[in-house]
Amino acid sequence: MPEFQNPVAGFGVTFKAMFKKRLTEQYPEEKKPTAPRFHGRHQLNRHPDGLEKCIGCELCAWACPADAIYVEGADNTDEERYSPGERYGRVYQINYLRCILCGLCVEACPTRALTMTNEYELADRSRESLIYTKEELLAGLEETMVDSPHAIYPGMTEKDYYKGLVTEAAPGTVRQTATSKGEKADGNSQEKGARA
Ligand code: SF4
Ligand code: SF4
């Protein structure tokens, strides 16, 4: 090619690119769905009547290679019941500054209380806001549910919940007064960032 044609040949590349499909992602205005099994933010699940599946066993915290989970279990009482069995997770925190979204905590959970959603927007400006508390991680309420704490379904046992025999809150179920939820022994509200 004669030397004077070189600049024109260069524009050829530009013109070809102009008619190609644009690859620019318009995030955050347009969000693309993730793969169905993408590991995103965690969720603490509930039974169909609204009681919590977490039993405060701490197995997820022990399994975590990044030491990102902090759990404190406590005993249920008939006046204040969060889960069908003996124990529940009174304090539950995940530190997303440490979490590597590996999913080992989900594998360790014996009750399927802990699962992962597809939510990936986990950026913020402060350390505190990236330590998610139980209130932030707990699944929302569906139509069949009453918020915990509340009484166990009449005539049902903890095992019956896991057999799938409880499909909705019993008629007349009301939320009990929550006095200890996420609170420390001295009555102060849950201290956020225990593992910051
Ligand atoms: S996903 Fe992995 S790093 Fe994150 S809390 Fe669970 S076990 Fe820890
Ligand atoms: S989420 Fe599962 S493994 Fe973790 S404390 Fe609760 S029941 Fe135990």
UniProtKB/TrEMBL annotation:
Binding residues annotated for [4Fe-4S] cluster 1, in chain numbering: C54, C57, C60, C109
Entry EC number(s): 7.1.1.-
Enzyme class label: translocase
Gene Ontology molecular function: 4 iron, 4 sulfur cluster binding; iron ion binding; NADH dehydrogenase (quinone) (non-electrogenic) activity; quinone binding
Gene3D superfamilies reported in the protein's UniProt record: 3.30.70.3270
Positions of [4Fe-4S] cluster 2 binding: C64, C99, C102, C105
Cofactor(s) it depends on: [4Fe-4S] cluster
Location(s) in or outside the cell: Cell membrane
Region feature (Disordered): 172-196
Keywords, ordered alphabetically: 4Fe-4S, Cell membrane, Iron, Iron-sulfur, Membrane, Metal-binding, NAD, Quinone, Repeat, Translocase, Ubiquinone
Assembly and binders: NDH-1 is composed of 14 different subunits. Subunits NuoA, H, J, K, L, M, N constitute the membrane sector of the complex.
UniProt family annotation: Belongs to the complex I 23 kDa subunit family.
Name of this protein: NADH-quinone oxidoreductase subunit I
